[in-house]
């Protein structure tokens, strides 16, 4: 349930000379799922516990990370009969909010965007121009002109997300016919005000980010050339920036200075609040069981293992 053993397909078990240099590795995580795991199981053991936090004003972030074709979009969006984390989380969030409706007034607004080649596109209103990231006077990051939808109906949201997902930049590569070439970010903001007049000033704001990252595979794997190659370089740049932030955050108290460079890419700037600070973050790393993607699986597991060492100070 908690260990992944990665075996090198090119290794000969009888080769005594290389026995000590084996590339077989064991990784330990909070939770490991095999190919038999259902969407419900993955959701319950990764995300369900975060909902309570969002309602009490913490931020929460869920990442889907891994090479192309390993099922990131399936985990996050799912299908109509097997919905993914987006829908299950929002359904439970609305149920939990309804339970507090007597004491609290709440509003839920959500936006769905993609970061492609370091520009931000609104997936709910695809005809609009590229959007700008701005910082307000309190230092929180805003996206100017993004479409925000307020609703408390999970079915409505599923339709919006499916529609938005069709607007995502997808291109065929040698590794996957419908490879997502952009990072999709679903941002849900829960604002609550108490109904009692005496403490009418207090407002709780919890942000929930759900991020379906673009594939982290190497260019050799997708045989990309020209435009696809440039696109892959942008994807890898933002994933590298995310990796650097994760490294800096997980090495706090080490010899390195406490500087975390969130400004290296739009993705990390947008997720600044949710990587450090008052946030609970889950990374769901996806790997393929195929022996041809051994290198990709190894890099993904190392990346996820580093992310596991982040300690946030609330």
Automatic annotation (TrEMBL):
Chain residues that bind ATP: 66-73
GO cellular component: cilium; microtubule
Location of region: Disordered: 163-182
Lineage, highest ranks first: Eukaryota, Metazoa, Chordata, Craniata, Vertebrata
Zinc among keywords: no
Polar residues: compositionally biased ranges: 170-182
InterPro entries in the record: Kinesin-like_fam, Kinesin_motor_CS, Kinesin_motor_dom, Kinesin_motor_dom_sf, P-loop_NTPase
Protein name stated in the entry: Kinesin-like protein
Location(s) in or outside the cell: Cell projection, Cilium; Cytoplasm, Cytoskeleton
Organism for this UniProt entry: Alca torda
């Amino acid at each position: 349930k908690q260990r992944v053993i990665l075996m090198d397909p090119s290794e000969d078990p009888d080769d005594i000379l290389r026995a000590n240099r084996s590339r077989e590795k064991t990784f330990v995580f909070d939770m490991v799922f095999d190919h038999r795991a259902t969407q419900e199981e993955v959701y319950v053991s990764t995300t369900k516990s975060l909902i309570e936090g969002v309602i009490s004003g913490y931020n929460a972030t869920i990442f889907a990370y891994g090479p192309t074709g390993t099922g990131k979009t399936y985990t996050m969006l799912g299908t109509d009969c097997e919905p993914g984390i987006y829908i299950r989380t929002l359904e439970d969030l609305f149920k939990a909010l309804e339970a507090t409706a007597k004491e609290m007034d709440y509003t839920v607004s959500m936006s769905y965007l993609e970061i492609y080649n370091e520009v931000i596109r609104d997936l709910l209103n695809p005809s609009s121009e590229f959007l700008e990231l701005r910082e307000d006077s309190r230092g929180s990051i805003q996206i100017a002109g993004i479409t925000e939808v307020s609703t408390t109906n999970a079915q409505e949201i599923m339709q919006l997300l499916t529609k938005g997902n069709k607007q995502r930049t997808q291109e065929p590569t040698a590794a996957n016919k419908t490879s997502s070439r952009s990072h999709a970010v679903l941002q849900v903001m829960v604002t609550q005000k108490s109904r009692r007049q005496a403490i009418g000033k207090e407002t709780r704001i919890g942000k929930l980010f759900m991020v379906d990252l673009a594939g982290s595979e190497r260019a050799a794997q997708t045989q990309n050339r020209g435009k696809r190659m440039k696109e892959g370089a942008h994807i890898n740049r933002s994933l590298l920036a995310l990796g650097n932030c994760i490294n800096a955050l997980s090495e706090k108290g080490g010899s390195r200075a406490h500087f975390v460079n969130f400004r290296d890419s739009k993705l990390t700037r947008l997720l600044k609040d949710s990587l450090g600070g008052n946030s609970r973050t889950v990374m769901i790393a996806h790997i393929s069981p195929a022996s041809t993607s051994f290198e990709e699986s190894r890099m993904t597991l190392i990346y996820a293992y580093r992310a596991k060492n982040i300690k946030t100070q609330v």
